[in-house]
Amino acid sequence: MQGIITIDGPSASGKTSVAKLVAQRLGIPYISSGLLYRAVALMCLLENVSAEEIEHKLGKYRLELRPTPTQNLVFLDGHEVSAALHSLEVDQIVSAVAVRPAIRQYVNDVLRRIPPPFVVDGRDMGSTVFPQAQHKFYLTASPEVRARRRVPERDAAFETVLAEIIRRDQADQQQSAPARDAIILDTSHLDLDGVVRAVLEHIAPSS
Ligand code: C5P
Q: Ligand 1 centroid vs 38 CA: distance in angstroms?
């Protein structure tokens, strides 16, 4: 397996969990591109500035993503910040960060420097960042199903998580269209194992 496999989809569609397991099965790293947008959102919180203002400060930080077999570690200037990237505060500002072209360019440059093979998840990995990818998938599920999956990961009520997912779907619409050659998988009625099996079956069909 020498290539790149992209797994895109809206927030809480399960793409990171699927990417991680598919990568493990194939014995290659996985990369969660959303972490890099989250790291830029964290920079805004640390500097107490807006998404627009952080654009001018990107050069001040050295942003690194190091894949390990079980997780992605994110470093800002050598300090590991992975644990701070999944808060509701970051959820709330990350879309405003991700909509800015200069920030997208910055994140895409970090991603394109990572040597293949890998499985990468995000919104526009198959459509924009890695159009040459060998296999492209796009996961979907209803907002309610996605909110139910996400509640255990956030210290918040179902309604709060659902409202946040619907808001982020709207805010991320621009960069979230599936690649034309992506395989679209509706995961509403599949468990994690079922989605992983479906993806692996497309990559290497059993006869
Ligand atoms: O995937 P995750 O939910 O962690 O992504 C966080 C945010 O980063 C998304 O809501 C979106 O605004 C942005 N993002 C993006 N393009 C990607 C990955 C993430 O715009 N490829």
A: 7
